[in-house]
Structures are given as structure tokens and as C-alpha cells.
Write a structure and sequence with these properties.
mainly alpha; 248 residues
Length: 248
């Protein structure tokens, strides 16, 4: 309990130090663009590939498990759409990104800590937390809606592709009707809002574990693992809270 409170206090103090106005805005925007490309744009292809296959698998599995003649076939498209919009493209995709992006952030900052680069910044009077962490946080939060939209689009495309296999009576026409049935545009905004919160969780927690590394290369690996585990847990907790607030 004491260790948890200690970590919470360290995290709060680090975020207080991080979320301040940059001293040099030109340098900050250069770093921001760099982090958007490195953390966001570089993750685009893995998001697209995973979403296509998951959308296809969801449609196939729902089709195989709906065998009752009382359940209309357009339910396949409707259910696939709801799963992708409400949970997969935001929560599940961000859990995947926590492994890729979170470990990257923690290992990068952790390596700078053990090689004393952060200490050198502090000696020169630079706010190292603001300089290193804020661009990563804002870069990921700015680009994560793009990843979510691409995930939704390609996941639905995967489901449409599965409908052409004519599995258990599923047809493209019935799938398309189900996709349009009782469509609620708020779900897209809901997923985007959730993803921005998750992006903050991933970037801030990973930065915390990397920034507070003590020791050598072995500790950097442990910090990277801890960052992914803690980010995943907090994403799941935030998912429950945001769902309760926004959908009930």
C-alpha cells in the first residue's frame, strides 16, 4: 500500500513538472511533429492489418454462431459494427498499442536516464520532464483519433469481405443492411474520446516508469514491462468508468 501511494505521488509530481509551458516553442513543435510520426504514423500499418483480420474474424464467428431461423441475418452486420465501434477500435486497439508504443517510450526515456542524459539536461537548467515527455503525450493524443478512425474503417471492410464468403447464409446485402440498422453516430465520438484518454494513460505511465529507472540496462527492461502491464490495467479500468459515464 505504501509503495503504491509512493508511486502515485511520484507520478503526480512528474505530471505537474511535465504539464507546463515549454521554454522554447519552436523546439517543442519540432519534437511534437517527430513524436507524432514516430509514435502515431509508424503504428498505422499494424492498426490497419490487425483491424482487417479482426473485423473478418468477428463477422465469420458471429455468422457461424447464429443458426436460429428466428434471428435475421442482418444481425451479423449490426453486431459486427457495434463490436468494432464500441470496443475494438478504441479499447482493444489501445491495449495493443500499449505494448508497442508504451514499451518504446519507457525504454527510450529509461535508456536516457541510465546513460545520464537526463541528468545532463537538469544540470543545464532544462526541464527534462517537459522537454522529453510532453511532446510524446500530446503527439500520441493528437494522432490516436486518426488510428481509431482507420481501425473502424478497415475493421468494417474486413467484415464486408467476410460477407462475400456466403458463410451460413451471410450475404453482402444483409451485412450492409445490418451495418446501417439503427446506426448511432455518437458511438464514433465515444470511441475517439476514449482513445484520447487511453493515449494519455499510455504515454504518461510509460514515461513515468522510464523516467524513474534506477540501475542499468536490466532495469530498463523491467521498466518497459511494468509500463505495459500498468498501462493495460489502467486502460481497462478507464474503459469501465468511461462506459458508465458516457453510455448510461
Amino acid at each position: 500500500m505504501n509503495e503504491s501511494l509512493h508511486r502515485l505521488g511520484e507520478y503526480t509530481l512528474l505530471m505537474t513538472k511535465t504539464i507546463t509551458a515549454p521554454n522554447r516553442w519552436s523546439m517543442f513543435f519540432k519534437q511534437l511533429v517527430k513524436e507524432i510520426y514516430k509514435l502515431g504514423a509508424d503504428s498505422l500499418w499494424i492498426v490497419i492489418i490487425i483491424s482487417i483480420f479482426i473485423g473478418t474474424v468477428i463477422a465469420i464467428q458471429i455468422s457461424l454462431n447464429i443458426s436460429s431461423p428466428l434471428i435475421p441475418k442482418f444481425t451479423i452486420g449490426y453486431t459486427t459494427r457495434e463490436i468494432i465501434l464500441l470496443e475494438f477500435s478504441s479499447s482493444i486497439m489501445c491495449l495493443i498499442l500499449a505494448g508497442k508504443v508504451g514499451s518504446n517510450i519507457a525504454s527510450e526515456i529509461g535508456t536516457m536516464r541510465v546513460t545520464e542524459q537526463i541528468d545532463a539536461m537538469e544540470i543545464m537548467g532544462v526541464n527534462s520532464a517537459n522537454f522529453l515527455i510532453l511532446p510524446k503525450m500530446l503527439g500520441l493524443m493528437a494522432f490516436i483519433p486518426v488510428l481509431v478512425i482507420f481501425s473502424m474503417f478497415t475493421g468494417i471492410l474486413g467484415g464486408i469481405a467476410a460477407s462475400y464468403a456466403d458463410i451460413n447464409g451471410m450475404t453482402p446485402a444483409s451485412f450492409e443492411y445490418g451495418m446501417q440498422f439503427y446506426f448511432n453516430a455518437f458511438y464514433i465520438g465515444y470511441s475517439v474520446i476514449k482513445s484520447v484518454v487511453y493515449a494519455f494513460i499510455i504515454s504518461s505511465i510509460s514515461s513515468y516508469f522510464g523516467y524513474n529507472v534506477k540501475g542499468g540496462a536490466l532495469e530498463v527492461g523491467k521498466a518497459s514491462t511494468n509500463a505495459v502491464v500498468m498501462s493495460s490495467i489502467m486502460i481497462l479500468l478507464a474503459d469501465v468508468i468511461l462506459t458508465q459515464i458516457m453510455l448510461t
